[in-house]
Design goal:
Elements (H helix, E strand, L loop, with lengths): L1 H12 L1 E2 L6 E7 L14 H16 L9 H18 L12 H11 L22 H15 L4 H15 L6 E3 L2 E3 L1 H8 L6 E5 L9 E3 L10 E4 L2 H13 L4 E5 L6 E2 L4 E2 L12 H8 L7 H5 L12 H9 L7 E10 L5 E6 L12 E5 H7 E7 L5 H7 L3
Parallel strand pairs: 5-7, 10-13
Antiparallel strand pairs: 1-2, 2-11, 3-4, 5-14, 6-7, 8-11, 8-14, 9-10, 11-12, 12-13
């Protein structure tokens, strides 16, 4: 099974993404489970982290499991409502979050397989939280205005979640054995204390942890701050040694073209580096127009040499934003030898020709990463010692 999954990841990420354009060769790949679809929900944080955990189970020899995203999402929503009430309505009760929210919810309630709790208790084949989220907001607002959470408040919250996501099973049978959510989580052998968050920004000291200042970090999770080159080396080392990486970053950039199966960071400010025809197309770009609509990703283009200063400027000018979480599952190179990160998305398999995967360039990842999560054993020993991680 492991060899099959590795081969599948390589197959999905190799070859030509567009005719006579990019040709990728995979150099490193980790075991993966099938691509899923978050559909009409803002739950990428959970889909990416679930995919990461499923790969962790494969890496640990625990077999292939399809874990329930919505079981975790449900508990995260309850946690947000609690936090928002105690903050007198100033908390974050949006659909987004970060990987630490998965870790927290897993510790609280455990986990169940997808077949036990798919989180779709309404007339739809795919996830759709368009009505669920406004309902929760309305209940939250009532509690804030009344400055009180009555027994009925908790009943209403559970009733809404039961109505849209389904009731949580107290016990279930999976592969011939009976479990509770917590006993099933224990059987998987996943220790939530083993996972660390890494980032790289210059407004905090390196080799120390800090609370990352992005809206979806409503639980105030701490990240270890590394120099940019060291962060990239740590990501590379993890992927080269069989550890996958959960990635959070900015996908609103013009160079992010999921339908083309690639994300690049082109050096469009120095138009002298391009042919006249390309220069004209860059100059004619309209506000909001995506790069793939102009260039069609016809060939590899020169990319920005990202420095810590460039990265920091993007973050502090709100150009680099906390948009989306995905799962890094390998390393690839294009026909020019440029490095890319094989990336498993959660938008289904039909929105591009790469079966739901894309390859993000080294320059794009350097510039647009908000943070990454990985197993602590993936870190170099010297780095673990310096960070005080046992």
């Amino acid at each position: 099974m492991k060899k099959t999954l590795i081969a599948l990841a390589a197959l999905l990420s190799a070859g030509s993404l567009c005719a006579q354009s990019y040709v990728f060769t995979v150099t490193d790949s980790v075991p993966v489970t099938p691509v899923k679809n978050q559909a009409r929900t803002g739950t990428c944080w959970c889909f990416a982290t679930t995919s990461f955990m499923e790969s962790e189970l494969l890496r640990k020899g625990k077999g292939e499991h399809d874990l329930s995203e919505m079981f975790i999402v449900r508990q995260k929503l309850k946690n947000q409502l609690e936090d928002n009430y105690l903050r007198r309505g100033n908390g974050n009760i949006g659909p987004g979050s970060l990987s630490p929210s998965y870790i927290h919810a897993f510790r609280q309630v455990g986990i169940v397989p997808e077949e036990v709790y798919n989180g779709i208790n309404y007339d739809s084949k795919t996830h759709n939280h368009g009505e669920l989220m406004p309902m929760l907001h309305a209940v939250a607002d009532v509690a804030i205005k009344s400055k009180n959470r009555s027994p009925q408040y908790y009943q209403v919250v559970d009733g809404i979640l039961d109505t849209y996501l389904g009731k949580v099973p107290e016990k279930f049978t999976y592969k011939g054995k009976e479990y509770t959510p917590k006993s099933f989580a224990q059987s998987l052998g996943l220790n939530m204390d083993d996972y660390v968050n890494l980032t790289s920004f210059t407004h905090h000291p390196y080799y120390e942890s800090f609370i990352l200042e992005v809206p979806d970090n409503w639980e105030h999770a701490s990240m270890y701050n590394l120099p940019l080159d060291e962060l990239m080396q740590t990501i590379d080392g993890a992927l080269s040694n069989g550890y996958s990486v959960c990635w959070d970053g900015d996908v609103s950039e013009k160079g992010f073209a999921f339908k083309n199966g690639a994300a690049i960071n082109p050096e469009i400010n120095d138009l002298s580096r391009f042919k006249p025809a390309d220069t004209a197309r860059f100059s004619a770009m309209k506000p909001g127009e995506r790069l793939d609509e102009i260039l069609k990703f016809e060939k590899p283009y020169p990319e920005v040499a990202v420095t810590p200063e460039i990265r920091q400027k993007g973050f502090e000018s709100f150009v680099t934003t906390d948009d989306h979480l995905m799962h890094l599952t390998g390393i690839a190179k294009d026909q020019n030898g440029t490095k890319y990160y094989v990336t498993k998305n959660s938008w289904g398999t039909e929105r591009n020709d790469n079966k739901g995967y894309l390859n993000m360039s080294d320059s794009f990842v350097r510039a647009k990463t908000i943070y990454v999560m990985m197993h602590k054993d993936a870190l170099p020993k010297e780095l673990r010692k310096r960070l005080g991680i046992k």
